Amino acid sequence: MRACVYALLVEFLIYRDIPLRGLPALLITSAMRSTIVMMVVAMAALLGWMITFSGLPDQVAGLLGAISPNKYFLLLWLNILFLIVGTFMEAYAAIILLIPILLPVVKAYHIDIIHFGVIVTVNLCIGMVTPPLGVTLFVACSISGQSISSVLRPLAPMLMTMIAVLFLITFVPATVMFLPNMFH
Prior knowledge:
The protein has 184 residues and is an all-alpha fold.
């Protein structure tokens, strides 16, 4: 709230790009864009509740623990899981839903918890720009006035780069663990 008031004061007292009579239209536009984001978050939370209620997370955790012969195979499965979940669920809901279930499996395979947290974060960030839920993608398209279909083609090389970095982070832990290891 304070940041919004500060931004308004800076705009109207220093920059003066928007006339005071333009404030109502600006507030309406901001409310509409916020509504879009909140609707996506609400639907993701509902989906998270439905998935939790169905017991699917427990089944997935058991399955991952049973089919993964080593930690690298588990990490591959976790990347696939979080990339899929990230495209259909809001990041906060995914973290609340999956981390408590997957953490014991991760610990059993002696995967560093910080490394796991970075992997989850990067996966879910990729999901934020991937349809069908891609909250950041929807906001960017709303602000730019572009359709999602027109943005997907230019976005594809960036998504491939992000996935390549994800796999580098996953299978070469030193890329992200050098700093935490300095203080450990």
